[in-house]
Amino acid sequence: MLCHLYLRKGVVYIPTLGKVDKGYYRGIEPVAVVPLSNAEAIRHALLNTVARGNPPTSRLAPGQSYSPITLKYAGVKNWQTFERGTAYWSIKEDSGIFRIIAHRKAEQGWEEDEAQSQLFPAGTPVDEVIDQMISILQAGPQREGAE
Predict the structure, then answer these.
(1) Global pTM?
(2) Which fold has domain 2-138?
(3) 53-108 tens-digit pLDDT
(4) In this predicted structure, what is the pLDDT of residue 62?
């Protein structure tokens, strides 16, 4: 299971990630849009997103261009605008082991920030992972451009 979270201008965006192929995902509906100030709504949105998992999603049709679904909810026209001032994390679960993966802006796109990422022991309940993710979100911007 993989889920992405974006924090931009005090709003948390959590798209459902549909699995297209092995290792390839794209954002699909539903997308949770929650004010950072509402920890309980973030918790609920994350629980629902994790429970949904990564439903199978078809490839785009030949010639069809991809526009990240999150742009529509953020009210911006392109990914470069969305990225500006955005902080980005992933929650990944593999064989019962959760990881919160922090990302930082790189020369082209995003890269994992191992120093800010967290690995949880096997058997850690999802509620504990989500509580930690909410703490991270509400701790404030930790990286350049996260405001």
Answers:
(1) 0.91
(2) NMB0488-like fold (3.40.1590)
(3) 999 998 888 888 788 999 999 999 999 999 999 999 999 999 999 999 999 999 88
(4) 85
DSSP E strand stretches across the chain = 2-8, 11-21, 24-35, 86-94, 97-105, 110-112, 118-119
Rounded to an integer, what distance in angstroms lies between the CA atom of residue 132 and that of residue 100?
Answer: 9
d(CA 98, CA 81): 30
Q: What tokens does 18 get? A: 């549909």
Domain locations in the chain? 2-138
How far is Cα 45 from Cα 65, in angstroms, rounded to an integer?
28
Q: Which residues contact 37 (CB under 8 A, 6 or more apart)?
A: 10
